[in-house]
Amino acid sequence: KRANALGLHDMSGNVWEWCFDWYKDDPASNDAAYMQGGIVTDPQGGASGTDRVGRGGSWRNGANGCTVGVRNGFSPDRSYNLLGLRLACLP
């Protein structure tokens, strides 16, 4: 794949990316900003919950399910062969 506008390669699709946010199936909580053409930076999940957010889809999803906007909930008490994490550091 070619690099995206930020110079990054292959940012979605291989495994779901584990996120620290609690999963809350309520996308409407950020809809107002989207409907007004705004951008939601660091959208927050629920204050607590039983599942953590996974983003980006995996090898088990079709092409429509492998985008950075796709999210799902995963129990932190289980292991998954389709869930990973991305390490990041500040320069």
Automatic annotation (TrEMBL):
Residues 39-58 are annotated as: Disordered. GO terms for molecular function: formylglycine-generating oxidase activity. It comes from the Bacteria. Residues 2-88 form the Sulfatase-modifying factor enzyme-like domain. It holds the Pfam family FGE-sulfatase. SUPFAM superfamilies: C-type lectin-like. Gene3D superfamilies: paralog of FGE (formylglycine-generating enzyme). PANTHER family: FORMYLGLYCINE-GENERATING ENZYME, SULFATASE MODIFYING FACTOR 1, 2. This is Sulfatase-modifying factor enzyme-like domain-containing protein. The lineage of its organism: Bacteria, Pseudomonadati, Spirochaetota, Spirochaetia, Spirochaetales.
